[in-house]
Amino acid sequence: MIEIANEIAADSEGRLKVNIIDPYAGNSSVAKKLSKEYGLSPLSTSRYGGDFFYFHLILERDDMAIQIPLEDKTKLSFERNLKAGIKRFGKGFIKTIGFVTPVDDPKLQQIGISVPQFNQLAEFLGTDLNIIDEDLSDGSVSGEVDILVVAAPNGMGSKEVFAIDQFVMKGGSVVAMASPYTMTLGRDGLGLAQLEGEFKDWLRYQGLDMENKLVLDMQNKAFPLPVMRNAGGHRVQEVRMIEYPYFSDVRSNGFNQENAITANLSQVTMAWSSPITVDADKNRNRKVTELLRSSENSWISDNTEIMPEINDQGMTLFQREGEFSSHLLGVVSEGEFTSYFAGKPSPLLSDEDENKGSEAKGRLTTEEIVAEINGTKVSDSSSNSISNPDTSPADSQVKEEPETETVETIDSSVIQKSPASSRIVLFSSNDFLRDQTLTIANSAVGSEYLGSLELVANAVDWALEESGLLSIRSRGHFNRTLPPMEHDTQLFWEYLNYGLMVIALIIIALVRRKRQKSRQQHYLTQLAN
Q: How much is the pTM?
Protein backbone atom coordinates (compact mmCIF):
# COMPACT_ATOMS: atom_id res chain seq x y z
CA MET A 1 0.00 0.00 0.00
CA ILE A 2 2.65 2.51 1.04
CA GLU A 3 4.77 1.60 -1.98
CA ILE A 4 1.93 2.18 -4.45
CA ALA A 5 0.79 5.38 -2.71
CA ASN A 6 4.32 6.78 -2.78
CA GLU A 7 4.68 5.93 -6.49
CA ILE A 8 1.46 7.77 -7.35
CA ALA A 9 2.48 10.70 -5.14
CA ALA A 10 5.84 10.92 -6.91
CA ASP A 11 4.07 11.08 -10.30
CA SER A 12 1.62 13.74 -9.10
CA GLU A 13 4.21 16.56 -9.09
CA GLY A 14 3.36 17.59 -5.57
CA ARG A 15 -0.45 17.42 -5.94
CA LEU A 16 -0.71 14.29 -3.77
CA LYS A 17 0.93 13.88 -0.39
CA VAL A 18 1.02 10.72 1.71
CA ASN A 19 0.74 11.12 5.48
CA ILE A 20 0.92 8.20 7.91
CA ILE A 21 -0.83 9.00 11.19
CA ASP A 22 -0.46 7.13 14.47
CA PRO A 23 -3.90 7.29 16.16
CA TYR A 24 -2.42 6.51 19.57
CA ALA A 25 0.01 9.44 19.51
CA GLY A 26 -0.51 12.20 22.07
CA ASN A 27 -2.44 10.13 24.58
CA SER A 28 -4.86 8.93 21.85
CA SER A 29 -5.90 12.49 20.99
CA VAL A 30 -5.41 11.71 17.29
CA ALA A 31 -7.78 8.75 17.57
CA LYS A 32 -10.43 11.01 19.10
CA LYS A 33 -9.96 13.51 16.28
CA LEU A 34 -10.30 10.78 13.64
CA SER A 35 -13.50 9.60 15.27
CA LYS A 36 -14.92 13.12 15.50
CA GLU A 37 -14.02 14.33 11.99
CA TYR A 38 -14.27 11.14 9.93
CA GLY A 39 -16.26 8.73 12.10
CA LEU A 40 -13.43 6.21 12.08
CA SER A 41 -13.36 3.56 14.76
CA PRO A 42 -10.70 0.93 15.48
CA LEU A 43 -10.85 -2.48 13.86
CA SER A 44 -10.78 -5.68 15.85
CA THR A 45 -9.42 -9.12 15.16
CA SER A 46 -12.48 -10.68 16.81
CA ARG A 47 -16.19 -9.95 16.90
CA TYR A 48 -15.98 -10.12 20.68
CA GLY A 49 -13.39 -7.35 20.91
CA GLY A 50 -9.84 -7.77 22.11
CA ASP A 51 -6.96 -6.42 20.05
CA PHE A 52 -7.85 -3.12 18.39
CA PHE A 53 -5.96 -1.27 15.69
CA TYR A 54 -6.50 1.33 12.94
CA PHE A 55 -6.20 0.47 9.27
CA HIS A 56 -7.90 3.15 7.14
CA LEU A 57 -7.00 5.17 4.07
CA ILE A 58 -8.55 8.64 3.62
CA LEU A 59 -8.30 10.91 0.57
CA GLU A 60 -8.97 14.53 1.45
CA ARG A 61 -9.02 17.86 -0.35
CA ASP A 62 -10.55 21.04 1.06
CA ASP A 63 -13.86 20.01 2.63
CA MET A 64 -14.23 16.76 0.68
CA ALA A 65 -13.01 13.48 2.15
CA ILE A 66 -13.59 9.90 0.99
CA GLN A 67 -12.39 6.57 2.34
CA ILE A 68 -10.70 4.11 0.02
CA PRO A 69 -12.05 0.56 0.48
CA LEU A 70 -9.35 -1.95 1.38
CA GLU A 71 -11.33 -4.93 0.20
CA ASP A 72 -8.62 -6.85 -1.61
CA LYS A 73 -5.13 -7.77 -0.46
CA THR A 74 -3.64 -7.65 -3.95
CA LYS A 75 -1.62 -4.67 -5.15
CA LEU A 76 -3.57 -4.51 -8.39
CA SER A 77 -6.91 -4.15 -6.62
CA PHE A 78 -5.57 -1.56 -4.17
CA GLU A 79 -4.09 0.50 -6.99
CA ARG A 80 -7.38 0.37 -8.92
CA ASN A 81 -9.40 1.52 -5.90
CA LEU A 82 -6.91 4.28 -5.06
CA LYS A 83 -6.90 5.67 -8.60
CA ALA A 84 -10.70 5.45 -8.74
CA GLY A 85 -10.87 7.49 -5.53
CA ILE A 86 -8.45 10.11 -6.87
CA LYS A 87 -10.54 10.48 -10.03
CA ARG A 88 -13.55 11.44 -7.88
CA PHE A 89 -11.73 14.68 -7.05
CA GLY A 90 -11.03 15.53 -10.66
CA LYS A 91 -13.08 16.73 -13.62
CA GLY A 92 -13.20 15.32 -17.11
CA PHE A 93 -13.01 11.65 -16.10
CA ILE A 94 -15.83 9.31 -17.02
CA LYS A 95 -17.53 8.55 -13.71
CA THR A 96 -19.03 5.20 -12.75
CA ILE A 97 -22.57 4.64 -11.48
CA GLY A 98 -23.34 1.70 -9.24
CA PHE A 99 -26.86 0.71 -10.35
CA VAL A 100 -28.91 -1.11 -7.70
CA THR A 101 -32.17 -2.62 -8.97
CA PRO A 102 -34.59 -5.26 -7.64
CA VAL A 103 -33.63 -8.87 -8.22
CA ASP A 104 -36.00 -11.30 -9.90
CA ASP A 105 -38.35 -12.99 -7.46
CA PRO A 106 -39.58 -16.40 -8.68
CA LYS A 107 -42.46 -16.33 -6.18
CA LEU A 108 -43.86 -13.14 -7.70
CA GLN A 109 -43.41 -14.43 -11.22
CA GLN A 110 -45.44 -17.53 -10.36
CA ILE A 111 -48.49 -15.38 -9.57
CA GLY A 112 -48.00 -13.20 -12.64
CA ILE A 113 -46.38 -10.16 -10.99
CA SER A 114 -43.37 -8.79 -12.83
CA VAL A 115 -40.32 -7.34 -11.10
CA PRO A 116 -39.64 -3.68 -12.02
CA GLN A 117 -37.13 -3.21 -14.82
CA PHE A 118 -35.11 -0.02 -15.41
CA ASN A 119 -33.42 -0.71 -18.73
CA GLN A 120 -34.40 2.62 -20.29
CA LEU A 121 -32.96 4.53 -17.34
CA ALA A 122 -29.69 2.57 -17.47
CA GLU A 123 -29.43 3.17 -21.21
CA PHE A 124 -30.10 6.90 -20.80
CA LEU A 125 -27.50 7.33 -18.04
CA GLY A 126 -25.02 5.14 -19.89
CA THR A 127 -24.67 7.62 -22.76
CA ASP A 128 -22.37 9.83 -20.64
CA LEU A 129 -21.36 7.62 -17.69
CA ASN A 130 -20.23 4.08 -16.99
CA ILE A 131 -22.95 1.83 -15.58
CA ILE A 132 -22.25 -1.28 -13.53
CA ASP A 133 -24.82 -3.48 -11.81
CA GLU A 134 -23.87 -3.34 -8.13
CA ASP A 135 -24.56 -6.36 -5.96
CA LEU A 136 -24.85 -5.31 -2.30
CA SER A 137 -25.44 -8.76 -0.89
CA ASP A 138 -21.82 -8.97 0.28
CA GLY A 139 -22.24 -5.82 2.37
CA SER A 140 -19.88 -3.58 0.38
CA VAL A 141 -19.75 -1.27 -2.63
CA SER A 142 -17.06 -1.60 -5.29
CA GLY A 143 -14.23 0.91 -5.05
CA GLU A 144 -14.81 1.89 -8.70
CA VAL A 145 -18.27 3.30 -7.95
CA ASP A 146 -18.52 7.11 -7.78
CA ILE A 147 -22.24 7.31 -7.04
CA LEU A 148 -25.02 4.86 -6.16
CA VAL A 149 -28.38 4.92 -7.94
CA VAL A 150 -30.92 2.86 -5.98
CA ALA A 151 -34.16 2.04 -7.81
CA ALA A 152 -37.21 0.50 -6.10
CA PRO A 153 -35.36 -1.05 -3.13
CA ASN A 154 -37.36 -4.02 -1.91
CA GLY A 155 -36.46 -6.66 0.64
CA MET A 156 -33.10 -5.15 1.51
CA GLY A 157 -31.51 -6.81 4.50
CA SER A 158 -28.93 -5.53 6.94
CA LYS A 159 -25.97 -6.25 4.66
CA GLU A 160 -27.40 -4.35 1.70
CA VAL A 161 -28.33 -1.36 3.86
CA PHE A 162 -24.92 -1.55 5.55
CA ALA A 163 -23.22 -1.29 2.15
CA ILE A 164 -25.24 1.84 1.27
CA ASP A 165 -24.76 3.31 4.73
CA GLN A 166 -21.00 2.90 4.71
CA PHE A 167 -20.75 4.22 1.15
CA VAL A 168 -22.36 7.44 2.38
CA MET A 169 -20.15 7.44 5.47
CA LYS A 170 -17.12 7.32 3.18
CA GLY A 171 -18.24 10.52 1.43
CA GLY A 172 -20.33 9.00 -1.34
CA SER A 173 -23.64 10.19 -2.78
CA VAL A 174 -26.85 8.19 -3.19
CA VAL A 175 -29.71 8.92 -5.59
CA ALA A 176 -32.72 6.87 -4.50
CA MET A 177 -36.12 6.32 -6.10
CA ALA A 178 -38.08 4.83 -3.24
CA SER A 179 -41.51 4.92 -1.61
CA PRO A 180 -43.56 2.57 0.59
CA TYR A 181 -45.49 1.17 -2.40
CA THR A 182 -44.73 -0.19 -5.83
CA MET A 183 -47.03 -0.87 -8.76
CA THR A 184 -47.81 -4.48 -9.64
CA LEU A 185 -49.12 -5.69 -12.97
CA GLY A 186 -50.93 -8.97 -12.52
CA ARG A 187 -53.81 -10.90 -14.01
CA ASP A 188 -56.34 -8.57 -12.39
CA GLY A 189 -54.72 -5.42 -13.75
CA LEU A 190 -52.93 -2.71 -11.80
CA GLY A 191 -52.33 -3.06 -8.10
CA LEU A 192 -50.05 -1.89 -5.32
CA ALA A 193 -47.69 -3.88 -3.12
CA GLN A 194 -46.08 -2.59 0.04
CA LEU A 195 -42.31 -2.80 0.02
CA GLU A 196 -40.37 -4.54 2.75
CA GLY A 197 -36.81 -4.26 3.99
CA GLU A 198 -34.66 -1.93 6.06
CA PHE A 199 -33.96 0.75 3.46
CA LYS A 200 -36.97 2.85 4.46
CA ASP A 201 -35.83 2.59 8.09
CA TRP A 202 -32.40 3.82 7.03
CA LEU A 203 -33.95 6.82 5.27
CA ARG A 204 -36.09 7.55 8.32
CA TYR A 205 -33.01 7.44 10.53
CA GLN A 206 -31.37 10.02 8.23
CA GLY A 207 -34.37 12.32 8.65
CA LEU A 208 -36.25 11.52 5.41
CA ASP A 209 -39.54 9.77 6.08
CA MET A 210 -42.38 8.83 3.75
CA GLU A 211 -45.96 8.24 4.81
CA ASN A 212 -47.77 5.05 3.83
CA LYS A 213 -50.02 7.10 1.59
CA LEU A 214 -50.22 8.12 -2.05
CA VAL A 215 -50.37 11.56 -3.63
CA LEU A 216 -53.28 12.26 -5.99
CA ASP A 217 -53.23 15.41 -8.07
CA MET A 218 -55.88 17.23 -10.08
CA GLN A 219 -53.01 18.39 -12.29
CA ASN A 220 -52.15 15.02 -13.79
CA LYS A 221 -51.13 13.22 -16.95
CA ALA A 222 -53.49 11.11 -19.00
CA PHE A 223 -53.54 7.36 -18.59
CA PRO A 224 -54.24 5.07 -21.58
CA LEU A 225 -56.87 2.60 -20.36
CA PRO A 226 -58.13 -0.28 -22.54
CA VAL A 227 -61.96 -0.38 -22.43
CA MET A 228 -64.58 -2.54 -24.16
CA ARG A 229 -67.53 -1.03 -26.05
CA ASN A 230 -70.37 -2.42 -28.17
CA ALA A 231 -70.24 -1.62 -31.87
CA GLY A 232 -73.02 -3.11 -33.98
CA GLY A 233 -73.50 -6.02 -31.63
CA HIS A 234 -69.76 -6.71 -31.42
CA ARG A 235 -67.49 -6.01 -28.45
CA VAL A 236 -64.52 -3.91 -29.50
CA GLN A 237 -61.53 -2.99 -27.33
CA GLU A 238 -60.22 0.54 -27.62
CA VAL A 239 -57.69 2.64 -25.71
CA ARG A 240 -59.22 5.65 -24.01
CA MET A 241 -57.14 8.47 -22.51
CA ILE A 242 -58.49 9.26 -19.04
CA GLU A 243 -57.47 11.59 -16.24
CA TYR A 244 -55.42 9.69 -13.68
CA PRO A 245 -54.67 11.57 -10.41
CA TYR A 246 -51.94 9.10 -9.42
CA PHE A 247 -49.78 10.54 -12.25
CA SER A 248 -48.84 13.90 -10.71
CA ASP A 249 -47.92 16.35 -13.46
CA VAL A 250 -45.16 18.53 -11.99
CA ARG A 251 -44.66 21.75 -13.93
CA SER A 252 -42.43 24.82 -13.60
CA ASN A 253 -44.20 26.09 -10.48
CA GLY A 254 -43.52 22.75 -8.79
CA PHE A 255 -39.76 22.82 -9.44
CA ASN A 256 -37.05 24.50 -7.41
CA GLN A 257 -35.84 27.09 -9.91
CA GLU A 258 -32.76 27.85 -7.80
CA ASN A 259 -31.30 24.34 -7.98
CA ALA A 260 -29.40 23.07 -11.02
CA ILE A 261 -31.19 19.70 -10.92
CA THR A 262 -34.64 21.13 -11.67
CA ALA A 263 -33.97 24.69 -12.92
CA ASN A 264 -34.12 23.77 -16.63
CA LEU A 265 -36.87 21.14 -16.49
CA SER A 266 -40.31 21.86 -17.88
CA GLN A 267 -42.33 18.81 -16.84
CA VAL A 268 -41.99 15.55 -14.87
CA THR A 269 -44.60 12.87 -14.21
CA MET A 270 -44.40 11.33 -10.74
CA ALA A 271 -46.27 8.03 -10.74
CA TRP A 272 -47.73 6.53 -7.56
CA SER A 273 -45.62 8.77 -5.34
CA SER A 274 -45.77 9.31 -1.57
CA PRO A 275 -45.33 12.52 0.44
CA ILE A 276 -41.90 13.10 1.97
CA THR A 277 -41.56 14.42 5.51
CA VAL A 278 -38.25 16.02 6.49
CA ASP A 279 -37.27 15.70 10.16
CA ALA A 280 -36.01 19.20 10.99
CA ASP A 281 -34.29 18.06 14.17
CA LYS A 282 -32.22 15.32 12.49
CA ASN A 283 -31.33 17.61 9.59
CA ARG A 284 -30.54 20.73 11.61
CA ASN A 285 -26.83 20.48 10.77
CA ARG A 286 -27.39 19.60 7.12
CA LYS A 287 -28.50 21.54 4.08
CA VAL A 288 -31.91 20.33 2.91
CA THR A 289 -33.16 21.46 -0.51
CA GLU A 290 -36.65 20.78 -1.84
CA LEU A 291 -36.58 19.78 -5.50
CA LEU A 292 -40.16 19.23 -6.63
CA ARG A 293 -43.67 19.36 -5.23
CA SER A 294 -47.14 18.42 -6.41
CA SER A 295 -49.61 21.16 -7.31
CA GLU A 296 -51.79 22.98 -4.79
CA ASN A 297 -54.75 20.90 -6.02
CA SER A 298 -53.44 17.59 -4.69
CA TRP A 299 -54.38 15.41 -1.75
CA ILE A 300 -53.15 12.22 -0.09
CA SER A 301 -54.96 8.93 0.36
CA ASP A 302 -54.25 5.54 1.90
CA ASN A 303 -56.50 3.79 -0.63
CA THR A 304 -54.40 1.30 -2.61
CA GLU A 305 -57.05 0.59 -5.26
CA ILE A 306 -55.31 2.30 -8.17
CA MET A 307 -57.11 0.59 -11.06
CA PRO A 308 -59.27 3.25 -12.78
CA GLU A 309 -62.95 2.48 -13.34
CA ILE A 310 -65.13 3.89 -16.11
CA ASN A 311 -68.73 4.86 -15.39
CA ASP A 312 -71.58 5.20 -17.90
CA GLN A 313 -70.49 8.73 -18.79
CA GLY A 314 -66.97 7.58 -19.59
CA MET A 315 -65.43 9.25 -16.53
CA THR A 316 -63.14 7.81 -13.85
CA LEU A 317 -64.17 7.87 -10.24
CA PHE A 318 -61.53 8.71 -7.60
CA GLN A 319 -62.68 9.75 -4.16
CA ARG A 320 -61.11 12.99 -2.95
CA GLU A 321 -59.97 12.87 0.66
CA GLY A 322 -58.93 15.68 2.97
CA GLU A 323 -57.88 19.17 1.98
CA PHE A 324 -55.99 20.24 -1.11
CA SER A 325 -52.32 21.13 -0.53
CA SER A 326 -48.90 20.79 -2.14
CA HIS A 327 -46.75 17.80 -1.14
CA LEU A 328 -42.99 17.26 -1.27
CA LEU A 329 -41.94 14.61 -3.82
CA GLY A 330 -38.19 15.19 -4.19
CA VAL A 331 -35.50 16.42 -1.81
CA VAL A 332 -31.73 16.68 -1.35
CA SER A 333 -29.99 16.36 2.01
CA GLU A 334 -26.26 17.09 2.16
CA GLY A 335 -23.81 17.33 5.02
CA GLU A 336 -22.61 15.12 7.85
CA PHE A 337 -24.63 11.93 8.37
CA THR A 338 -24.48 9.55 11.30
CA SER A 339 -24.28 5.85 10.54
CA TYR A 340 -27.47 3.83 10.97
CA PHE A 341 -25.24 1.15 12.51
CA ALA A 342 -23.45 3.47 14.94
CA GLY A 343 -23.13 1.70 18.28
CA LYS A 344 -24.22 -1.59 16.70
CA PRO A 345 -22.14 -4.58 15.60
CA SER A 346 -21.42 -4.76 11.90
CA PRO A 347 -23.87 -7.03 9.99
CA LEU A 348 -20.81 -8.60 8.41
CA LEU A 349 -19.87 -10.10 11.77
CA SER A 350 -22.36 -12.95 11.53
CA ASP A 351 -21.51 -16.43 12.66
CA GLU A 352 -21.63 -17.68 9.10
CA ASP A 353 -19.23 -15.05 7.85
CA GLU A 354 -16.90 -15.60 10.79
CA ASN A 355 -16.79 -19.34 10.16
CA LYS A 356 -16.07 -18.86 6.49
CA GLY A 357 -13.51 -16.14 7.06
CA SER A 358 -13.17 -13.17 4.76
CA GLU A 359 -10.95 -14.60 2.06
CA ALA A 360 -13.86 -14.31 -0.37
CA LYS A 361 -13.92 -10.60 0.35
CA GLY A 362 -10.16 -10.36 0.02
CA ARG A 363 -9.58 -8.76 3.43
CA LEU A 364 -6.07 -8.81 4.90
CA THR A 365 -5.36 -11.20 7.72
CA THR A 366 -3.86 -10.05 10.99
CA GLU A 367 -0.58 -11.84 10.25
CA GLU A 368 -0.33 -10.20 6.83
CA ILE A 369 -0.70 -6.74 8.32
CA VAL A 370 1.98 -7.48 10.93
CA ALA A 371 4.20 -8.88 8.19
CA GLU A 372 3.76 -5.77 6.04
CA ILE A 373 4.63 -3.51 8.96
CA ASN A 374 7.66 -5.56 10.05
CA GLY A 375 8.75 -6.52 6.54
CA THR A 376 8.67 -10.24 7.37
CA LYS A 377 7.00 -13.25 5.82
CA VAL A 378 3.56 -14.39 6.87
CA SER A 379 3.37 -17.50 9.01
CA ASP A 380 0.31 -19.39 10.18
CA SER A 381 -0.44 -18.71 13.81
CA SER A 382 -3.04 -19.66 16.35
CA SER A 383 -2.50 -16.31 18.08
CA ASN A 384 -4.52 -13.70 16.20
CA SER A 385 -3.65 -10.67 18.29
CA ILE A 386 -1.65 -7.67 17.17
CA SER A 387 1.14 -6.63 19.47
CA ASN A 388 0.56 -3.47 21.46
CA PRO A 389 2.89 -0.67 20.31
CA ASP A 390 4.17 -0.37 23.89
CA THR A 391 4.88 -4.11 24.21
CA SER A 392 8.39 -5.38 23.58
CA PRO A 393 8.96 -8.04 20.89
CA ALA A 394 9.92 -10.49 23.59
CA ASP A 395 6.42 -10.34 25.02
CA SER A 396 4.84 -11.21 21.68
CA GLN A 397 5.40 -14.83 20.81
CA VAL A 398 3.95 -16.40 17.70
CA LYS A 399 3.24 -20.12 17.85
CA GLU A 400 3.61 -22.29 14.82
CA GLU A 401 0.57 -24.25 13.67
CA PRO A 402 0.02 -26.72 10.85
CA GLU A 403 -0.59 -25.23 7.41
CA THR A 404 -4.15 -26.59 7.42
CA GLU A 405 -5.16 -24.31 10.29
CA THR A 406 -7.75 -21.69 9.25
CA VAL A 407 -6.47 -18.16 9.75
CA GLU A 408 -8.97 -15.80 11.32
CA THR A 409 -9.26 -12.60 9.34
CA ILE A 410 -10.11 -9.00 10.06
CA ASP A 411 -13.76 -8.05 9.86
CA SER A 412 -14.95 -4.65 8.78
CA SER A 413 -15.75 -1.98 11.32
CA VAL A 414 -18.51 0.60 11.26
CA ILE A 415 -17.64 4.14 10.18
CA GLN A 416 -19.65 6.26 12.58
CA LYS A 417 -19.95 9.56 10.67
CA SER A 418 -19.66 10.88 7.12
CA PRO A 419 -17.75 13.91 5.83
CA ALA A 420 -19.67 17.04 4.83
CA SER A 421 -19.47 16.08 1.14
CA SER A 422 -22.01 13.22 1.47
CA ARG A 423 -25.38 13.63 -0.22
CA ILE A 424 -28.71 11.83 -0.34
CA VAL A 425 -31.11 12.62 -3.20
CA LEU A 426 -34.57 11.11 -2.72
CA PHE A 427 -37.51 10.90 -5.13
CA SER A 428 -40.59 9.40 -3.49
CA SER A 429 -41.67 7.01 -6.23
CA ASN A 430 -40.52 3.49 -7.04
CA ASP A 431 -42.18 3.43 -10.42
CA PHE A 432 -41.89 6.75 -12.24
CA LEU A 433 -38.75 5.50 -14.04
CA ARG A 434 -39.54 1.82 -14.54
CA ASP A 435 -39.87 0.63 -18.12
CA GLN A 436 -43.63 0.00 -17.96
CA THR A 437 -44.36 3.52 -16.68
CA LEU A 438 -42.18 5.16 -19.32
CA THR A 439 -43.97 3.13 -22.00
CA ILE A 440 -47.31 4.42 -20.70
CA ALA A 441 -45.95 7.99 -20.73
CA ASN A 442 -44.70 7.58 -24.30
CA SER A 443 -48.11 6.38 -25.48
CA ALA A 444 -49.82 9.25 -23.65
CA VAL A 445 -47.72 12.00 -25.30
CA GLY A 446 -47.43 10.22 -28.65
CA SER A 447 -43.63 10.61 -28.68
CA GLU A 448 -40.53 9.78 -26.67
CA TYR A 449 -40.93 11.02 -23.09
CA LEU A 450 -37.69 12.16 -21.42
CA GLY A 451 -38.79 14.39 -18.54
CA SER A 452 -38.32 11.85 -15.73
CA LEU A 453 -35.08 10.53 -17.21
CA GLU A 454 -33.64 14.04 -17.39
CA LEU A 455 -34.53 14.63 -13.74
CA VAL A 456 -32.48 11.68 -12.48
CA ALA A 457 -29.66 12.33 -14.95
CA ASN A 458 -29.45 15.92 -13.69
CA ALA A 459 -29.40 14.67 -10.09
CA VAL A 460 -26.53 12.30 -10.88
CA ASP A 461 -24.54 15.00 -12.69
CA TRP A 462 -25.14 17.47 -9.86
CA ALA A 463 -24.02 14.97 -7.22
CA LEU A 464 -20.91 14.26 -9.29
CA GLU A 465 -20.47 18.01 -9.83
CA GLU A 466 -20.53 17.50 -13.60
CA SER A 467 -22.17 20.84 -14.40
CA GLY A 468 -20.99 20.64 -18.01
CA LEU A 469 -22.97 17.47 -18.72
CA LEU A 470 -25.97 18.94 -16.91
CA SER A 471 -26.07 22.08 -19.05
CA ILE A 472 -25.53 20.15 -22.30
CA ARG A 473 -28.38 17.76 -21.47
CA SER A 474 -30.71 20.62 -20.59
CA ARG A 475 -30.11 22.30 -23.96
CA GLY A 476 -30.19 19.12 -25.98
CA HIS A 477 -33.48 17.76 -24.69
CA PHE A 478 -35.46 20.94 -24.25
CA ASN A 479 -39.06 20.61 -25.37
CA ARG A 480 -42.01 22.94 -25.46
CA THR A 481 -44.56 21.58 -23.02
CA LEU A 482 -48.17 22.73 -23.21
CA PRO A 483 -49.38 24.51 -20.07
CA PRO A 484 -51.72 22.53 -17.79
CA MET A 485 -55.45 23.27 -17.97
CA GLU A 486 -58.52 22.61 -15.86
CA HIS A 487 -61.08 20.18 -17.28
CA ASP A 488 -63.62 22.96 -17.95
CA THR A 489 -60.96 24.99 -19.78
CA GLN A 490 -60.04 21.96 -21.87
CA LEU A 491 -63.69 21.48 -22.84
CA PHE A 492 -63.98 25.17 -23.75
CA TRP A 493 -61.04 25.07 -26.14
CA GLU A 494 -62.13 21.71 -27.55
CA TYR A 495 -65.65 22.88 -28.34
CA LEU A 496 -64.27 26.19 -29.61
CA ASN A 497 -62.13 24.28 -32.11
CA TYR A 498 -65.18 22.30 -33.23
CA GLY A 499 -67.18 25.49 -33.61
CA LEU A 500 -64.46 27.27 -35.58
CA MET A 501 -64.22 24.30 -37.93
CA VAL A 502 -67.98 24.36 -38.54
CA ILE A 503 -67.94 28.13 -39.14
CA ALA A 504 -64.98 27.74 -41.51
CA LEU A 505 -66.86 25.07 -43.49
CA ILE A 506 -69.97 27.28 -43.72
CA ILE A 507 -67.88 30.21 -44.95
CA ILE A 508 -66.20 28.00 -47.55
CA ALA A 509 -69.62 26.72 -48.72
CA LEU A 510 -71.01 30.29 -49.03
CA VAL A 511 -67.95 31.45 -50.96
CA ARG A 512 -68.19 28.50 -53.35
CA ARG A 513 -71.92 29.12 -53.85
CA LYS A 514 -71.35 32.81 -54.54
CA ARG A 515 -68.58 32.06 -57.04
CA GLN A 516 -70.81 29.48 -58.73
CA LYS A 517 -73.61 32.02 -59.11
CA SER A 518 -71.14 34.56 -60.43
CA ARG A 519 -69.93 32.13 -63.08
CA GLN A 520 -73.50 31.26 -64.09
CA GLN A 521 -74.35 34.95 -64.47
CA HIS A 522 -71.24 35.44 -66.56
CA TYR A 523 -72.21 32.56 -68.91
CA LEU A 524 -75.80 33.87 -69.29
CA THR A 525 -74.45 37.30 -70.22
CA GLN A 526 -72.15 35.74 -72.82
CA LEU A 527 -75.04 33.76 -74.37
CA ALA A 528 -77.31 36.83 -74.45
CA ASN A 529 -74.74 38.80 -76.38
A: 0.65
